[in-house]
Amino acid sequence: MSPARPQGPKRLPLSLRRTPVAWDRQRPTWREARPALIAGALKRAQARPTGNWYVVGASRDLRPDRPLARTVAGREVVLWRNAGGDLVAGPGSCPHLGAPLRDSTVRCGTLVCHWHGMALDGRTFTGWEPWPAHDDGVLLWVRLDEAGGEPATSRPAVPERPALNEALTALYTGTGVCEPDDVVANRLDPWHGAWFHPYSFVDLTVVRTPGRADEEDSFTVDVSFKVAGRLVVPVRAVFTAPGPRTVLMRITEGEGEGSVVETHATPLGPDLLGRPRTAVVEAVVATSDRPGFAVARRASPLLRPLMRAAAGRLWRDDLAYAERRWALRSSGRLPG
């Protein structure tokens, strides 16, 4: 049973499911979730350019006294802010004797290696070459031209978001044994939502799928977020894949209209068994025109852990989906 389409602001964002359907009695969606349709959307996403930019983490995770270190596409990456406050990124191995710069200290914008004190201020020095980096206010990006192999761009293609000074943001990061394609394929299958995540979603209907002339290549979904018991928040959301490692969900009608959830899949490199590992970095940028939302923003230090916990519960399941897809795909057993 599909929820009533949101009709604009109400006094309260909550609705009561008057005739709730049990999980095992809801309408099956497997006929609509055609493998060829999902594969086609994924293939088109894979063809979109990235400029060789990769998401490496959250802006707020970068401390003033220590670098932020990540592995991206098998390359050690270290990031910090120089004396002018600009984001710096480069190889995570000291050019002197290969010390892990992740364990170093930042002093007045200079990264000081903890092995022998070699100081890096973000400029080229004795074989250490910086990589282009970008801080969009929510996420940190690094450009790895050798790994990406595409024509480089000066900036990453950051999705349109609500104004950050009027929004509530939260970040989740998880890791799975899979490739970015498997994460993106999960997000391009909205039909699984109410079946696989019944604790969060109910009354889900995909009302529009991509057509050949659809430039945005979008999936439109009517769904209700479960609050408690029969209380739900119905919305309309649109899913798009602006690049091969990014899926964007935007609420277009209902409570939180304009809010976005950005899901970025960053390849890390193989594990000890040679299996691929991928990081999921998800940014929730929530907004609302309700007067009480200003109070929620002021309470953001309390709300962010709750938002991360909710995202973590979803991704516990969705990373299992992505890992299963990779296991089947890598052994030639993926249906469709």
What does this structure look like?
The protein is an alpha+beta fold and 336 residues long. The chain has helices at residues 35-46, 145-148, 180-187, 193-196, 293-298, 300-330; strands at 15-16, 53-58, 68-72, 75-81, 87-91, 105-107, 110-112, 119-120, 133-135, 139-143, 168-176, 201-208, 219-228, 231-243, 246-254, 260-270, 276-286. Strands 1, 11, 12, 13, 14, 15, 16 and 17 form an eight-stranded antiparallel beta sheet that branches. Strand 3 (68-72) and strand 4 (75-81) form a beta hairpin. Helix 3 (180-187) crosses helix 6 (300-330). The two termini are 28 Å apart. Residues 1-9 have low confidence and may be disordered.
What sort of overall outline do the alpha carbons produce when their principal axes are compared? Answer: globular
Q: What amount of the residues lies in strands? A: 25-35%
Proportion in helices: 10-25%
Query: What do the pLDDT scores average to?
Result: 93
Biggest sheet descriptor: 8 strands, antiparallel
The number of helices is: 6
Our Rg estimate from Cα atoms comes to 21 Å
- Provide the structure class: alpha+beta
Order of helices and strands: EHEEEEEEEEEHEHHEEEEEEHH
**Poorly predicted spans:** 1-9
DSSP strand count: 17
Termini Cα gap: 28 Å
